[in-house]
Fold each of these.
Amino acid sequence: MRIGIDLLWVRVGKCGGTESFIRSLLDGFQQYDTKNEYVLFAARDNAGSFRHYAVKAGGRMQLYVCPTDSCSQPRRILWENLHLDRTARKQRIDILFVPVYSMPWTWGSRIPYVCVIHDLQALHYPRYFSRLRRLFLRYEWAHTCRRACRILTDSDYCRQDLISHYPGVKDRLRTMYVPIRVQEYDWSKGKAELRPQIRDLAQRDYFYCVSSLLPHKNLDTLLQAIRQIKQQGAWGDSLLVLSGVGGDTKQLEERLERYDIGDLVVQTGYVTDAERDYLYENCRIFLFPSIFEGFGMPPIEAMQRGKRVVMTRCSCLEEVTRGRAVYVDEPYNPGEWQEKIKEAASLPEKREVFSEYTPEFIVGHYMGLWEELGGKQA
C-alpha cells in the first residue's frame, strides 16, 4: 500500500514533542516497514529536513514538496484544505496519515484518513489560547472526530478525555503510544559536537528538568522546593539545569531573583537530541513537575538512561511511566517535592526498559492498522 503522511505542519525546531513524535515514527517506518510505500508531503521550507528519508529508504519513501510553507500557517492551512486530498489522489495514496488534529475539510473523499489528536489542552487550559484559536481548535477536533476513518491518541487518559467530549468517536478511537528511540553514543568522539556549556556540566552535580514556562508545567513549585532546600543548607553546590524554557524568560529570571536561587539554576535553552541525552546521562535525578501531558516523553527517556525520576501522577504520567518513578501526590506542595527528591537521591540508578515504546513495536501496530484499513477498502 501507499501511505501518505502530511508533514506540512512541521515548523522545524518549533513543534516540540509533536515534531519528536513524527520524526521517531518516520525513523521506525524507514527501518522496520519493508512492506508499504510512504509518500511524505512536505512544505518548501521543511522539506530539507525530511529528504534523508527518501534517500535512505531505497525507494520505499518518496518526498513530495508541496507549493506552500509551514511558517505561513494561514496559507498552509488553506492549501492543505484545498489541495492536499486531490494531490494525494494523484499520487495514488491508499491511506492518508495526518499526525495532528487537522484533517482537511474534504467531503466525499475516497481516501481513508487516520489522524492523531495528542491532547485537548485548549479545553483544560483555555487561558493559554486566544478566543479565535480556541474556536479553531474546537472546530478542527469536532471535524476530525466526525470525518476521520480512525483517530489515534497518545494514552488511555487522552482516549477517555476525547470520549468524554466527543462520544461519537469511541468506536474509531485507538490508543497508540509514542515511539521512543534510545540512541547509543560514543561520547569519547561525539562529545566534541556538544556546546561547551553542555560538556562542562558533566563536571558538576546537577538535577535536570525539561520544561516550558506554561503554568501547567508547574515549574514554579519546583523552584520553591529548591529554595526551601537551600534555606535548610541541604542543597550544597548542586545545580538545577533547565532545558526548553524558550520564549520570554523575564518572568523566570524574576522568580529566580525573588527566591534567591539564580546562582543554582543553569538555563540551556533549546538543546539538540544529543545534548539532551548527554544531560540525561550525567544528571543525578531527573525532575518533571508537569501536571498535564498528552504523553510525556522526557521522564521515560531519562529512565531508559538509568536515572531516577521525580514527577507527578497527573493526567497520563503515571500510566505511561508504568508506576516506575518516584511520584509526588500533592504536585503544588514544595515540601513534598523536597521529600521525594531526597527519597530518589537515596535510590541506586536503574536503567528501565519500556519495550512497548520501541519504534519496532509501535510500527508493528501501525502496519496492522494499515492492513486493517486496506482490507476494508478492498
Amino acid sequence: MATPENPSLGAPVRVLGLFDSICIIVGIIVGTGIFMTPMAVAAMIPSAGLILFAWVLGGALCVAGGVCYAELAATYPAAGGEYVYFCRAFGPWAGFLFSWSKMLVIRTGSIGAMAYAFGTYAEQILYLGSRSIPLYAGLAILVLTGLNILGIRVGSLGQNILTVAKVCGILGVLLVALVSSSSPIIAEIPNPSTTLPNFMVAMILILWTYGGWNETAYVAAEVHHPEKSLPRSIFYGTVFVIILYTAINAVFLRTLGVAGVAESKAVAADCLATALGEPGRQIISALVLLSALGAVNGLILTGARISYAMGAERSLFRLLGQWSSRFGGPIWAFLVQGFLSVILVWTGTFEALVTYTAAAAWIFFALVPLSLLILRWRDPDTPRIYRVPLYPFVPILFLLCCLYMLYSSVTYAGIGALLGFLIVLSGLPVYWVSRWVEREG
C-alpha cells in the first residue's frame, strides 16, 4: 500500500506546517455563524454577563473535545481523522459508516449550508434571478473544488489567504466599533423560570457556531511532525477563536446593548452602521462573503481526505482512494464531494441543510471520546506523545455534552434528523456488499 514516505506511489506527502494547520481550523470555524447566531443567543439570554459566559463556556467545551482529537490525531497520524480512530476502536464497519455518512450527509451538507449562506449574501450585491442563491453557492463549490484539486499546497495557500483576510477584517470591524460612540450595555434581569432552558438552547447555537475545531485531524498525513503540530494547532486555533468570538459579542453588546442585539436582523451590519453609516453594511456583506468562502474552502479541503481513507481500504470505492502524485490530492474524492454538495444546494435551503446534518454529526462526535477511552484501554503500550489532561474526566465530560447535543438536535430537527439517520444506516448494507465483493475478489 502507498505510504507518505513513497510519494511516487500516489500517497499523501507531509507539506503542511503549524500555521497552515491553524489556518484550516480558524478558517472553518469562523464562517457565517458568528454573524447569524448572536441575535438569537441574546434573545434567549437577557443578560450581558451570561451571554459572554455562554460563549466562553461553549469554547471551553470545544477545547475539551479538541484535546481528545489532539491525542488521537497525534497517536494515529493518518489521513481520514475519525475514520482511522473508529476502525481501530470499533472495527472497520464503524469507520466505513462514518465515511459514508460524511460523504452523503454530514460533510456535503455542511459544504452546501455554508455555500448557501455565501449565495444569500452574494445575491444582495448582484441579483441573478430567482435561483441566484443556489447559482452562487454551486459556483463557489465548483471553483473551490477546482482550486483544491490542484493540490494541498494551492488549497492550503488559498485557505491561509482567506483566513488571514477575514480575521483582519473582523479585527478592523471590532476596532471601528470600539472607537465609535456606543450605547451602554442593557443587562436586563433574567427570568428565573426561563433562563436555564433558554440558556441550554442558546448553547446549541453557540456550539454550532464553534464547529470545525477538529478539522486538522483529516489532513494528519500531510502535516509536518503531526505528533507536535496537531495538538498545538487544535489548541491554539480553538483558543484564538474563543477570544475572537467573545470579543465580537462584547463589542456587539457595547454598541447595541442586549435588547439591540436581540432585536437586530443583522447585528454586525447594525453595529458597523452606527460608526460608518450605510457603507458599513456593505463592508459587513463583503466580510461575510469572505468568511463563508474560507469556511467552504476548508470544508472541501479536509472533507475529501475522509472519502479517500475509505476508498483506500474498500475495493468497492477504490476510485475515491486514488491519490494523484501529480497534483498531490484525492482528485476523484474531490469531484464526488463537489458533485453531491452542488446537488444539495440546488435541492434545499440553509435551514434544511443544517438540520439535515446536525443529528448525524453529533452521533459521531460522541464516538470520538468513547474511542479514546477504548483505545487507551486496548492499546496501553502505544506511544502517546500527547495525552489528554485530567483523563478520564475531560473525555467523559465531552461525551456527555455530545449526547445532550444529539438529543437536542433530534428534538429540534424532527423529520430532517430522521432523513439523516436513514441515510447513515443505509451505509450498513453497502458495507456488507463491499465486504462480499472483497471476499469474492
